[in-house]
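Practice set, problem 2.
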Amino acid sequence: MKKIPVKHIASTHKEQSNKGRFSIRELSKVLKGKELVQKLHKHDFYFVLALEKGAGVHEIDFISYNIHNYAVFILRPGQVHQLQLAAKCTGYLMEFDNLFYQPKNSITAQRWKKATSKNYCTVKDTRFKKLLSFLTNISTEYTAKQEGFIEAIKANLDLFFIEYVRQSNNPAQISNTTNTYTQERYEDLLRLLELNITKIKNASQYADLLNLSSYQLNSITKASVGKTVSELINDQIILEAKRYLLATPNQIKEIADHLGYEDISYFIRFFKKHTGYSPEAFRKNFK
């Protein structure tokens, strides 16, 4: 069973310390006047792409975004993406892992969850300048590496994510009046699904992990995105299947086994029911 290709923070840019890995680079220095084209892969770190001037295409978990000016993308570890950037794009590319930045304060942690639940945000030029100022501060601190620079970087990351959350509404969220508790539990569920989908497929087990009843959890997901927990579980299974179908050469049976299906015929029927394609046809049509 081959794994999806995983990119790591380049050794020339990572912090060699027990404080985690971090990198920030100006896009002009990454591109060096050439177009960037990446194949489907995933990261073991958080990936932040902020484009002051942008053109190209960014596909994240099989959702395609046309890149333009004043756009921000945030990817969580494990998400798959492929990226095409025009040679003249400007902005910043920032990468870091959980060890470097993982807010402990409950308010900051919840804001961080909100930020990382939004893969894409586009803002007005005046508001983008505010986001850009925080990234410029981070880049300056990272380059100079003066006393306390790591703390300064983290402080600016806090400010960056505050502004990012202000600027971006969750496009999947159907209710603008969803209360904070409901939103937090919904985001907690999404993270549990990402971590456990190959092992846990029962809605009541996710409710138990969140110390909620099945009724409470279904009420939360319906208020958040208009779906039941079971529907979200199915969505996550299909997403994981698509990731392996398009990013690896694994046989269908191997992918079914990875997802916890001993009966390959059942897995094929399940996949076709939710996508309209058999796994093999999906691979041929979209790879």
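Problem 2, part (b): a different protein.
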Amino acid sequence: MHELILHHYPTSPFAEKARLLLGFKQLSWRSVMIPPVMPKPDLTALTGGYRKTPVLQIGADIYCDTALIARRLEAEKATPALFPEGQGFNVATLAQWADAVLFQHAVSLVFAPESMAVRFAKVPPEFAKAFAADRAALFSGGTASRLPLEQARHQWPALMGRLQQQLQQGGGDFLFGQPSIADFAVAHPLWFLRATPITAPLVDDYPEVAAWLARVLGFGHGSLSEMSGEEAIAVAREATPAALPDEDFIDANGFQPGQAVRIAAVDYGVDPVEGELLFSGREELILRREDERAGIVHVHFPRLGFRIEAC
């Protein structure tokens, strides 16, 4: 069995989601710190160009996007369940909404000038400038657009009110009574807002939500130890990718194993990854690619939120 390796950086909200998933599952993992802005040469040696944070590595298998990472961790350790029996559709649907709509609102609120002034008060001006340029490039070319700050402020009370109501009526300490992927997907945008006193009241002014968030964050991050990017690349180079899933599925657009394709996110961070399509399933796409540093790797993408086209 290969170790779980998470490529991430501390202030990434989606990385916090993945860290909490590892904590919820009580898993041990290796931590590889990556830069918050491009270039990320060690990461892209593994992914082939995908630049979003985080990425999960297991040997020579590279998992992109936290929606797919969650499913891979569920396969790694079935209990406690992220997709409780009978609630799989509900929790996955709410998680998808949170990762898109709720996160979009949080980004707009966090990037308000008064909030950013606090967040970047102790960093060199050149880094703040590089960060702004990097995020402009990250959101270029995809379907996602920055929600106007005024609209985010206008809509935020309705979103939080609905969360309050769900927690009051859900019959337990979590959104669907027992913990699920929905809790972690809703939690990470709120964790992002809690990072400064400017935006923290947007969470703390809702007592039931704040108490629930404390319970979710209480799962912690599991047991981790540090690893360098070079070490992670060596792990991939020396490993053999896992066997492909056994699934009877016909791709609606006719893509076939062995075909040269490129896969990219559709919302933001749309840098394409090219390779040989090995597997096309209901939830997952797998590319084979070869890198001079990492060797032969299988890069895994979720079907939802990504596009595929022939090279």
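Answer key, part (b): The radius of gyration is 19 Å. The chain is about 45% helix and 20% strand.
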